[in-house]
Amino acid sequence: MAKNQKLVEQITSMEDDFAQWYTDIVKKAELVDYSSVRGCVIFRPYAYAIWENIQSTLDKKFKETGHENVYMPMLIPENLLQKEKDHVEGFAPEVAWVTQGGNEQLTERLCVRPTSETLFCEHYAKIVQSYKDLPKLYNQWCSVVRWEKTTRPFLRTTEFLWQEGHTIHATKEEAEEETIRMLNVYADVCENLLAIPVVKGRKTEKEKFAGAEATYTIESLMHDGKALQSGTSHFFGQNFAKAFGIQFSDKTGKLEYVNQTSWGMTTRIIGAVIMVHGDDEGLKLPPRVAPIQVVIVPIAQHKEGVIDKATELKDKISKIARVKLDISDKMPGWKFSEYEMKGVPIRLEVGPKDIEKNQVVLVRRDTREKIFVSMDELETKIPELLEDIHNSMYEAAKKAREEKTSSAKTMDEFKDIVENKTGFVKAMWCGDRSCEDKIKEDTGATSRCIPFEQEEVSDTCVCCGKKATKMVYWGRAY
Amino acid sequence: MAKNQKLVEQITSMEDDFAQWYTDIVKKAELVDYSSVRGCVIFRPYAYAIWENIQSTLDKKFKETGHENVYMPMLIPENLLQKEKDHVEGFAPEVAWVTQGGNEQLTERLCVRPTSETLFCEHYAKIVQSYKDLPKLYNQWCSVVRWEKTTRPFLRTTEFLWQEGHTIHATKEEAEEETIRMLNVYADVCENLLAIPVVKGRKTEKEKFAGAEATYTIESLMHDGKALQSGTSHFFGQNFAKAFGIQFSDKTGKLEYVNQTSWGMTTRIIGAVIMVHGDDEGLKLPPRVAPIQVVIVPIAQHKEGVIDKATELKDKISKIARVKLDISDKMPGWKFSEYEMKGVPIRLEVGPKDIEKNQVVLVRRDTREKIFVSMDELETKIPELLEDIHNSMYEAAKKAREEKTSSAKTMDEFKDIVENKTGFVKAMWCGDRSCEDKIKEDTGATSRCIPFEQEEVSDTCVCCGKKATKMVYWGRAY
After folding, report:
1. Contact yes or no for A35 and B161 at CB 8 A
2. Which stretches make up the Aminoacyl-transfer RNA synthetases class-II family profile domain (chains A, B) (predicted)?
3. A223 inside domain
4. Confidence of residue B85 (pLDDT cuts 50, 70, 90)
5. What is the tally of structural domains in chain B?
6. Among A247, A277, A307, which residue terminates a domain?
7. Per-residue model confidence (pLDDT) at position B147
8. Residue A32's domain is classified under what CATH number?
9. Domain ranges, residue B131
10. Could you say which of A35, A75, A132 has the minimum Cβ distance to residue B40?
11. In chain B, which residues have their Cβ closer than 8 Å to the Cβ of A93?
12. Taking CB atoms and an 8 Å cutoff, what residues of chain B touch A73?
């Protein structure tokens, strides 16, 4: 490994300092660059390509489930933001305000959208008249701005990229179904695209979205034992509909308010990919989302026939996988660590001796296993291997999460887990806000969700000892 | 046509009032809705789907020519915007300023990006060291804000969607090649996706982009005889590189400044599609960009077997074209005018009598021609017909443009064309700004471009009579 030393030694070990390890990776894997703009990062080509893959997978699923894309303005007049009371209270403290346009001082401030419920509502109120106009299933791809005090690439930035779905329905039941349907889409994308297992559940009243009746969430667990909210889906009931007057005449001609949902997934999920899968060599990308699935590194590329053969292999593989051939003048060892840092799932080495034997060497990024494969079998072996890497990475992440998921029956057990073992704590809760507050104060852990899959850890609240109503996942979180 | 009357009578005739006709179409074809946000429109699903088709075609071409997508922050600190003198002078008067974040007053104003040269430059200065790092070929999909006084949907809005390419190169020649390459990509998309013929050329000094050494443009001609700038590509030389210190060491180790380009196409092009192809029945979409290429309208759909057969045809056609089946309870005549308004290229009618004869009726939106086709031949006939519609629309647009392109040797001729015939005026120019200003003052026409394909209309400047250096396309413009 001496050849790789230079690159590798620049990364902090994850066990020594997880936060610094994360910062090193986002920089060295060329995911982001810091800008001179407060709290905003630049998504470099490699990170943006990951986002494009997430985007196209989600977008396809949205369209398959009947959704249409639209685009709303990025600026929201202050009076519009104020129409729904809980919503403005939740967001006003963290928005950026435009107060000047050209050389004129505006008579009304405009906020840069932190989320677009208000704009969708205003539009829906205009275009919906009859039950025949329902449902409206809209989605929007855009960036939003929230004036954060402390920021970290992907995890919390002043501006981030996301999609926001906003739908309206004739009945409460339909809207509730939609809320769960989209939560399941997110869970599916986490598990089947990103190889990240998630816990599905409902947020407590304290943790729900500003203006929602219910917020559903998928929660994932990072390598350092902290949780990350990975996607949310909100049921609004008629809260916004009443504030904005979104009414329709039903089959009998009676005027009714619509029932509404919204749901979003953000570039924050890239942070989860880094922190669930990465190691001390760098990023480790799940194959289905990796911008480069196979990197070809020629060995002794100056020798006759090597680059020709590598190019031939590249052309062949490009039909079945996203492949890159690196014929730059760097040493192979240097290239090895560069693509390990970038988390490319498979490295293909081919040199004069391999060519003689009509074989190549495949090296898995996840297990570092080396496999010798005949050149004639590449078209079947590579897809199989990519599939296997996805499954192994998912299983490894699931195992890690299970090892870091513990049950607590008492506050002592609870504190011990949070401080020493870290990870998810499953514990019973009476349902009172005061216990939720006290747990946070005493341990730093917040309620992550009330999982759909309930277990009876005990029959009393871990905090107050009164009768428990629900089992809750708790944890320190990003 | 009596059945269609209700919808059709709501549209102003284009000959009576072209501006009102345009406004009617964007509303009735459900392209946009007005928002309560000053000068911003909502891109409704149908308009956004058109944009998605333009986007995916452009994006594919960008990637094929080696470009990578990135994402830069939407906010630019004032001092960064000011680094290139001409650039800030051009843009500062029309930007929106963020002055408050959360509850705090910012110490430095941030502008909402009107364009992102400055951010790309700041980033490039950090990531480029050696000639080996060049070229960098980046593109970004986003929205930008320009504080416009008067706005019209697509054509001029406070916020619009676009892509902005920003590239840096080791040599002037490479950068110039890139500038022309991307102009050609735009021309190709206009002609082959949107069926809009364009004139390629260079902008005069007066009309070029703020901070550029040269701006190239594609210009198209609308039905009312006004020109529309449809895409631009800028060569910056080393202007920005010097302002931002973007240097690299060349092969000999000498420090050099990079040469730079930028190029953009915007949602304004949707306005061109409307105004080049539309008619008094509404929108007329070129097949390759149409979100719905074939709409199936069942006749007497309550009769047994009609909806089944229509569904069967839909499934079949969905393999070769974007198809929609409308089984809503509206009258067929109402559906006819609705999809004519929406510019769907082919309407397929199928009723009990057609089913008996194993045939359908295809109606072209462009020529209104009716064609009877056997159900067994649909898979070959529909793609052929879509192809033919594209070609016919392109030829019709080209013919219309040629009829509205005239040469002028004197200012009297020039004025007569602009006022009575309208359209492009080809006229010679001495190269002096004063003549360009005078022509605008006297006629309202601006120089659209100095076309690559030069002709010698005469040998003297149409304005001052001095020796001419170039033939220029002039016209009133959007």
Report:
1. no
2. 17-286
3. yes
4. confident
5. 3
6. A277
7. 93
8. 3.30.930.10
9. 14-277
10. A75
11. 102-103
12. 35, 37, 40-42, 158-159
Please say if the pLDDT value at position B90 is more than 90.
no
Mean pLDDT confidence for B155-171: 97
Query: Under an 8 A CB cutoff, do B100 and A96 touch?
Result: yes
The minimum CA-CA distance between A34 and chain B, rounded to whole Å, is 9
pLDDT of residue B5: 47
* Residue B2 within a domain: no
Task: Specify whether B58 is located in the same domain as B181.
Answer: yes
Instruction: Verify that A204 and A329 share a domain, yes or no.
Output: no
What CATH number has the domain bearing residue B329? 3.40.50.800
Q: In Å, how far is A7's CA from the nearest CA of chain B? A: 17
pLDDT less than 50: residues of chain A: 1-8
In a domain, A420, yes or no: yes
- Asked if A340 and A455 sit in the same domain, the reply is no
Q: Which residue of B has its CA nearest to A72?
A: B42
Alpha carbon of A374: minimum distance to chain B alpha carbons (Å): 31
HEC letters along chain A = CHHHHHHHCCCCCCCCCHHHHHHHHHHHCCCEEECCCCCCEEECHHHHHHHHHHHHHHHHHHHHCCCEECECCCEEEHHHHCCCHHHHHHHHHHCEEEEEECCEEEEEEEEECCCCHHHHHHHHHHHCCEHHHCCEEEEEEEEEECCCCCCECCCECCEEEEEEEEEEECCHHHHHHHHHHHHHHHHHHHHHCCCCCCEEEECCCCCCCCCCCEEEEEEEECCCCCEEEEEEEEEEECHHHHHHCCEEECCCCCEEECEEEEEEEECHHHHHHHHHHCECCECCCCCCCCCCCEEEEECCCCCCCHHHHHHHHHHHHCCCCCEEECCCCCCHHHHHHHHHHCCCCEEEEECHHHHHCCEEEEEECCCCCEEEEEHHHHHHHHHHHHHHHHHHHHHHHHHHHHHCEEECCCHHHHHHHHHHHCCEEEEEECCCHHHHHHHHHHHCCEEEEEECCCCCCCCECCCCCCECCEEEEEECEC
Chain A CB contacts of B143 under 8 Å are 71, 74, 142
Contact B68 A45 (CB under 8 A): yes
B41 and B187 inside one domain: yes
Asked, for residue A116, whether it belongs to a domain, the answer is yes
Pair A377, A411 in one domain: no
| Chain A residues touching B328 at Cβ < 8 A | 132
Closest CB to A36: pick one of B80, B102, B159.
Answer: B80
pLDDT digits (tens, 9 = 90+) for A332-376: 999 999 999 999 999 999 999 999 999 999 999 999 999 999 999
Closest residue in chain A to residue B148, using alpha carbons only? A102
What ipTM describes this predicted complex?
0.95
**B127 and B27 within one domain:** yes
pLDDT in tens, B105-117: 999 999 999 999 9
